[in-house]
Fold this sequence. Notes:
Elements: E1 3-7, H1 11-20, E2 25-30, E3 39-42, H2 50-55, E4 60-64, H3 76-83, E5 90-98, E6 109-110, H4 121-134, E7 140-145, E8 147-149, H5 156-160, E9 165-166, E10 173-174, E11 176-178, H6 179-191, E12 198-201, E13 208-209, H7 210-221, E14 228-229, H8 231-237, H9 240-246, E15 251-252, H10 255-260, H11 270-278
Parallel strand pairs: 1-2, 1-4, 2-3, 4-5, 5-7, 6-15, 7-12, 8-11, 9-14
Antiparallel strand pairs: 10-13
Amino acid sequence: MNKVYLIGNGYVCNFITDKHSDDFEFVGVCRSKKNNCKINHCLDISTCTNQLKEVFQEEGSVVYLAAPPPTGVKDLTLNHFLSHIDKTKINKIIYISTSGVYGDKKDRLVNEKSELVPLTDRAKRRVDAEGQIIKSDIKYTILRVPGIYGKSRLPLKRIADNLPLIKKDICKHTNLINAKDLSKIIVQCLANELTENIVMNVSDGTPIKTTEYYLHIYDALKLEYPNFIDYEEANKIYDDKRKSFINESRILDVSLMNKVFPNIIDFKDIKDGIKDSLD
């Protein structure tokens, strides 16, 4: 059975192991204790050395979802990881990046060849990480992923807090993907030769205004809508992370994803994805 190392064995990995534990021998690595894999390691890959060598004693593929450090513009965690494993034992690495690497494209369409102009340090760390993966001499697939939603991953706290939303007529677009669909794509990338040494945008293929996304959740919960505000007001009351999202926009071109994986997306309609996430 093929061995797959899940580095940063968190939310998305739960969907991977739920569906594919009979197909792969999963080895989970993360900072917290988990039992979703056949073998589970609780360790900090940003600092450990000998433990990493012990984990990677057998050949296998890597799905890398570990978060970069919280500060700076370099992904030192990934650098430490790549420096302390035997790369010859890694058949392929699937690196989960972010569509934030493109920066603010003002609602324009972006494909994998579009210029990377990251605005936040968080996105700059991802650009640095992509470069490390490409230069690692390991076969790779880099997935540029937008906002991930799913069960236990809807913005229910913001809704409970009745956070005002941007007026729909001026609201910019966002891109989303259901965690179940993302997990399917990751698994398919492990063996698909068409994904070797490429970068791929992934999303549900249905860009949506952020406010519309929230309103669909309000509708599903049968709640009254909050107040609507403009961007000037939003920048006064939103937290820094939220502001960075509302002040950037782009529409992901997922033509490559659809070519390599036709009909892989189950939740093209966000309303269906929200319903599934609330069940």
